[in-house]
Design a protein that fits this description.
Blueprint lengths: L1 E9 L3 E9 L6 H14 L12 H8 L3 H14 L2 E2 L7 E2 L19 E2 L12 H14 L14 H15 L8 E4 L2 H14 L4 E6 L4 H8 L3 E8 L2 E2 L11 E4 L13 H14 L2 E5 L23 E6 L11 E4 L5 H12 L4 H13 L1 H27 L4 E3 L6 E6 L5 H10 L2 E2 L1 E2 L11 E6 L5 H17 L10 E2 L1
Parallel strand pairs: 5-16, 7-8, 7-10, 10-11, 11-12, 14-19
Antiparallel strand pairs: 1-2, 3-4, 6-13, 8-9, 12-13, 14-15, 15-18, 17-18
Helix pairs in contact: 1-3, 2-3, 4-10, 5-10, 6-7, 6-9, 11-13
Length: 481
Amino acid sequence: METIPIGAFDAATGGRDVFLDIELQRGSLRRNLRVALREAIQQGRLSAGTRLPSSRRLASDLQVSRGVVADTYDQLAAEGYLAVAPRQAPLVVAVAAPTPLTIEPGRPTWPIDFVATTPDVELFPRRAWLRAMERAMRAAPNAAFDYGDHRGRPELRVALREYLGRVRGVRTEPERIVVTQGFTQALYLLCRVLRAGGARTLTFETPSAPTPWATVAAAGLALEAAPVDDHGLRTDRLAHAAGDAVLVTPAHQFPTGSVMAADRRAALVAWARERDRLIIEDDYDAEFRYDRVAIGAIQGLDPERVVHIGTTSKTLAPGIRLGWMSVPVDLVAEVKAEKSALDSGSPALEQLAFANVLASGEYDRHVARARQTYRHRRDAMMAAVGRHLPGLRLDGAAAGLHVLLRLSGSVDDVAVVRVAAERGVRVEALSPMSLVGAPDRGLVLGYSRLSVEGIDPAVGLLADILRSAGAVPRHGQASSS
């Protein structure tokens, strides 16, 4: 890299040298000169109205052929950076400066992280995924690199049909499966289809994760709340619901951790049939059940009334951006059309790699290993809360990646979260997850990012924070469900 002055004439300041960083020894000399001049103009070091040296003079100064400089000037003129007139040196044209953006801070690294919505990405099976990507690259047909069926690669949809039927009791066919870039895209596509069909409102569990609320609103639907309790969604409240569809997390409700009872599952399906409504089933971490076999998906009870949505975001890693939904027959064409309009299909190689991981049994083995890891962490969390916070109630089935620590209604859980953040502790408050009414208070305690050994001191520090906020009773024992 050499710094070379060129004598440019600026009408405002008189002649002056502009220094250009040009790599004269590497790559294309024409390209390097073009890039250096273009950047000088874009950055304002060569201002509008500046007269550049003639091609002959600049070539002499740089000790290059005149053709190199002439070609560079011609290219920059074609791009709109220079004005060139016969028998005159080129003139720099005015270029608009970009509006400076505020640099967003990177994600903070938390010394103690009770995040409840992401897995431990360190468990991601890198070697298995690398082998699967290599096999996918070697075996991929040429058609995989072209535009294809926007529902997704057929190899993955076939593998998903087998896996979902075997593990989740989902009744579907490859033609009914649409591969998406995670749950958020699946929900957005579905809400767009519903909105186009005349739907206006989507019923949500409350409390629930706030992130999907914005997705639903962006698709043009209003939100309506339906409460949950220890047995899942209160289906008795649906009799007067205005929602055209209801979104539920029956296998493990977020954030309460409840599992929908059998009678309510039946009542929910009956409501959908009688009212001609749709059930959207978010099966987000159903593979992680620790005390029994996981409850099967509701979709198996009525495939034409339930859209089943699953992803790899909890089992593998959110960054993989792979999800899927099994769609009722009469919605397949519309969902496919929305997916086509949105992005023309998800990346093919990742789909082929995941299909390989599923078909080889490596996915089942990874989930089994992760399940064992999370079970030990949950046990440690339950024990630590019992030791440090014996007067508080802990809710949540033996499943998933979190438990819910209940606080009294007089406690400002949002303020507790702020104080915790000041002390290097990341934790989520329950109250902002309520859609209506007086919200319950609590903290959602995830254990996916904490080691077994680190959980007890982490809960001990959280207990100190809660005591300073007056949130810990003097007496009483913890209860769990």
